[in-house]
From TrEMBL:
<comment type="function">
    <text>This enzyme scavenges exogenous and endogenous cytidine and 2'-deoxycytidine for UMP synthesis.</text>
</comment>
<keyword id="KW-0479">Metal-binding</keyword>
<feature type="binding site">
    <location>
        <position position="90"/>
    </location>
    <ligand>
        <name>Zn(2+)</name>
    </ligand>
</feature>
<dbReference type="InterPro" id="IPR002125">
    <property type="entry name" value="CMP_dCMP_dom"/>
</dbReference>
<dbReference type="GO" id="GO:0005829">
    <property type="term" value="C:cytosol"/>
</dbReference>
<feature type="binding site">
    <location>
        <begin position="46"/>
        <end position="52"/>
    </location>
    <ligand>
        <name>substrate</name>
    </ligand>
</feature>
<dbReference type="InterPro" id="IPR016193">
    <property type="entry name" value="Cytidine_deaminase-like"/>
</dbReference>
<protein>
    <recommendedName>
        <fullName>cytidine deaminase</fullName>
        <ecNumber>3.5.4.5</ecNumber>
    </recommendedName>
</protein>
<feature type="domain" description="CMP/dCMP-type deaminase">
    <location>
        <begin position="5"/>
        <end position="132"/>
    </location>
</feature>
<dbReference type="GO" id="GO:0042802">
    <property type="term" value="F:identical protein binding"/>
</dbReference>
<feature type="binding site">
    <location>
        <position position="57"/>
    </location>
    <ligand>
        <name>Zn(2+)</name>
    </ligand>
</feature>
<comment type="similarity">
    <text>Belongs to the cytidine and deoxycytidylate deaminase family.</text>
</comment>
<dbReference type="GO" id="GO:0072527">
    <property type="term" value="P:pyrimidine-containing compound metabolic process"/>
</dbReference>
<dbReference type="InterPro" id="IPR006262">
    <property type="entry name" value="Cyt_deam_tetra"/>
</dbReference>
<dbReference type="GO" id="GO:0004126">
    <property type="term" value="F:cytidine deaminase activity"/>
</dbReference>
<dbReference type="GO" id="GO:0008270">
    <property type="term" value="F:zinc ion binding"/>
</dbReference>
<dbReference type="InterPro" id="IPR050202">
    <property type="entry name" value="Cyt/Deoxycyt_deaminase"/>
</dbReference>
Amino acid sequence: MSVNINIEGLIGKAKPFLSNSYAPYSNIHVAAAVLTDKGSIYTGVNVENASYGLTICAERSAISAMVAAGERKPVAVAVVTDMDNPIPPCGACRQVIAEFNPKALIIMHSVKSGKTIVKNLEELFPQPFILEK
């Protein structure tokens, strides 16, 4: 199934969740929305923890929701922040997204500046670790 990617629409799905982000340590609030090949959208936010290694990013939170719902193919991931500029997924998130689709479209948006950057995951993460299946 071919899915039409509405960049502004996907950003709009993530925006309402930005205020739910829990980031008392970094104060970097992030919400994500994942669009799948079936046209479903899953959202997530970053949730920090005093034991920093237990923090989960918004992108991985949304990917986890996708997997929990039984889907496996993200075609686009919107990353929305309240920072001055759009921010890309961290390396761990890039690896997790690549596990399911190394060709996913990554949409980065700042609600503060209104700026949006769109890149293919292959541009941001050209050599993911992938086991032969």
